[in-house]
Amino acid sequence: MLMFEALIAAAGIALILVVSEILWSKVKIQDELARKFVHISSGVFIASFGFWVDYKWVMLLSVGFIVANIINRYTNYFHAIHAVKRKSWGDVLFGVGVLIVAWFEPSAWLFAAAILQVSLADGLAAVAGVTYGKKHGRYYLFGQPKSIIGSCVFVIVSGFILSIVFLFDSYFVDPVAMLPVVFLLPLLLVCVENLAVYGTDNVFLPVTCLYFLSLL
Q: Which of 114, 143, 135, 3 has the alpha carbon at shortest distance from 48?
């Protein structure tokens, strides 16, 4: 049964990759947006693994994801995964981030919170930055483009994710008491996102989020 769940999880990721390739080749969406489609959709799907996939299988799938992305960098079979002009190892490091978080076997909600920070919050921030960043303030850190509107979107989405976790995770018996965390942790995480360049935010974001949530 556990293996069946892992196969379903692997099939889901494969389906997302196929759809992303169709969008990239047929619909001709922008390279960065194509990559973020994979980033967001696969990340949101993976964030649910803690609820129905054993962590040992999650780690094994993560290793497979890492290897597949390394191979794809040289074969370029799936163009949308790393269809980006700037230097980034985010496609490979995303799997590393999932592997590290799964290694600690947190509660399903904490696992979801950590992965959604890098997939949903960071992903939507990047989409906002690409779409509106040039008009609303762009800056560079270590040669990597960042935007004010992207950072604002990250903080808002990050806070929303934490709010949902605190409301539904039974470990947090008083969600109201977590309000300072909802406001302060996203500010810390957006600093991590800005400073962790070349795709390393895909590791540092989920690990940092999990670390501070585990302290509560």
A: 114
